[in-house]
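Q: Structure tokens for this one, please.
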Amino acid sequence: MSGDRGGQSLKGFDVVAVMERIKQLRGVVPKRIQVDNGSEFISKALDQCAYENEVTLDFSRPGKPTDNPFIESFNGSFRDECLNVNWFLSLEDAKEKIEEFKHDYNGFRPHSALCGLTPNQVLKGNLQNPTFSILDRY
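A: Here is the predicted structure, written as tokens:
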């Protein structure tokens, strides 16, 4: 990602860069983005980009994690299956173990929110066919 600082910091212009890359590659941007109140989502750059591309920024209410149950589900899995079961001996060790978790989570585990597909299967389907929908499985 342009402007990446080793995965330790994410700014609004980083999110804008990803949206612009998606727009260049796919010719579309999301219609809506569910966001929390983190600094990466409270920025003039992102607000302007969303406005110009007619993207709705749907902010979670402070202190209401149920506004975005998908991230809360992921956070629980990440905490229970990665953070709570590993000792991180260094930043590099943490990056390796988190990358292993990410590889498993995205590549081998079906997700009920994705109709039983893995995130990688959904990504592959979208890359091969821009009109791909997980609902086509039914």
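A few notes: Strands lie at 32-35, 56-59. Residues 1-5 have pLDDT under 50 and may be disordered.
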